[in-house]
Amino acid sequence: MTYPEQNNRFQTRCGDCPLRKLSAFEEFSPQTLKFMQQFKVGELKIEAGTQLLMEGHSSPQLFTLLSGMGLRYKTLEDGDRQVVNFIFPGDFIGMQAGILGEMKHSVEATTAMTLCVFDRKEIWQVFRNEPQRAFSLTWLVAIEEHFLGEALASIGQRSAIQRVAWALSRIHSRLTALKLNNGSAVPLPYRQRDIADAVGLSLVHTNKTLAELRKKQLASWVDGHLVVSDKRKLAKVAGVDLDNEVSQRPLI
Amino acid sequence: MTYPEQNNRFQTRCGDCPLRKLSAFEEFSPQTLKFMQQFKVGELKIEAGTQLLMEGHSSPQLFTLLSGMGLRYKTLEDGDRQVVNFIFPGDFIGMQAGILGEMKHSVEATTAMTLCVFDRKEIWQVFRNEPQRAFSLTWLVAIEEHFLGEALASIGQRSAIQRVAWALSRIHSRLTALKLNNGSAVPLPYRQRDIADAVGLSLVHTNKTLAELRKKQLASWVDGHLVVSDKRKLAKVAGVDLDNEVSQRPLI
DNA sequence: CGGGAAGTTGAAGCCAGTCAAGATTTGTGG
DNA sequence: CCACAAATCTTGACTGGCTTCAACTTCCCG
After folding, report:
1. Mind listing the domains of chain B with CATH numbers?
2. Which of A74, A134, A157 sits opposite B82 (nearest CB)?
3. Phi first, then psi: what are they for A209, rounded to 5°?
4. Which residues does chain B have within 8 Å of residue A143's beta carbon, measured at their own beta carbons?
5. Distance CA A121, CA B19 (A)
6. Tell me: the pLDDT tens digits for B61-116?
7. Cα separation, A43 vs A59, whole angstroms
8. CA-CA distance, B56 to B149, in Å (whole number)?
9. Against a cut of 0.85, is the pTM above it?
10. Does any strand D atom come closer than 7 Å to the Cβ of B48?
11. Is the minimum distance from the CB of A200 to strand C below 7 Å?
12. Which residues does chain B have within 8 Å of residue A135's beta carbon, measured at their own beta carbons?
């Protein structure tokens, strides 16, 4: 697989990375910044709908999403799909390929994306020479594990309205932390099928559940925008503890 | 929390660890062995039913399970429980406390357990001085993330019989890899409620589903022993790919 | 031998799945 | 810029897999 758009290397210097300024991310030390700058091998732009990584395949490259949104998902034998997580700016993509040797899920761009590109082979050098960064990588995997555990609890134990509320609450929190919100509204470019495949409900029932959340004024997702006027009320239905959320994560 | 049984330190030297001999685990280099021996601070025996780690709490200690079986689970606000994974010999316990600062799930001993004890504060030294081991730690977190993704896909998309078949198939594989099997039978000291809480089904329906698996001669779990005479047949129902399983994992 | 925990079984009800059709939006080529 | 096609969203009706309730059995362990 080749990416023609990848030629213009070093478009953004890490020092100028707009994500760094967000309070959602930990600060970089000057050394870390320098290291990241040389760890970065290029930048990549892809269009909406593009498959970035594929389940079962390795990838010579790892990515950090600079802008755009996407999906991680697993495809089952019979064609069913489980959306494992949503991907937002600042997310590190491809760790499984970097650590385990192959991806255990696919990654698809829902909107157009700009990505920072790294060389997978350098992962080992990170562990050898940059223990701080290696720890951050592990931290990210651990947080993802935590998230999946929470997802499992939600899907496994809760009702339809609780599950959908959970997904919307989580999404709204993350996008707000990234300052992508406009007041209580955040852009949400996914389709209902994506949410349905994430929470393990049928498309039809997801639609009806979204309508119910709208009617109860808990969350309104219309025209690609999600509005949550009272996030505590939504969080309560969702079974989410807003006071126990991770406030800062490392940026790779 | 104090563990009276912990006094007799260094009961087992890592060099004599029976788990090391299993082909399910990667081999230790002599340096690694030496490092592990000094990383280990003691040994712990606990009885069945003991809670080892608690959700939301930190832990000054990390563990490797030497013998016995247990459960990782999350408790929801209303008392419902999601079993996140089963714990078998060789599993490393407490990583989340080590990396994230607190546990995101509880850990309970289903049978009596013997555990290897490590000092959580030393985790950072592992990253600094033993990049190889640090990589192994990350690998373990990544595998756990992979497992939870698969669990999510199973719970989210499959029917009752497929979910239970999935759980039993996974358990049977792991216990067989640990050579705990006696022919096609493995010990399985859990209660039906544990499996029910793991696959997101009611206790009653789990019971009926187990009966159906027995009747179809796919898996028979009676008297604390699980017998799977044709693991390929079970794996097919479960949607598990036996050819794509992880064959070796690092032992910490 | 008595009491509690775990397993088993049947019956009834409901939450969510499936089917189907129509409305709305998006995309595309003339 | 319009017309048609395809994708997405919406709604109603019906169905069924799983939950809940309840009673009984079996297995332990003191």
Report:
1. 4-130 (2.60.120.10), 151-244 (1.10.10.10)
2. A157
3. -70, -40
4. 100
5. 31
6. 999 999 999 999 999 999 999 999 999 999 999 999 999 999 999 999 999 999 99
7. 16
8. 22
9. yes
10. no
11. yes
12. 99, 124, 127, 134
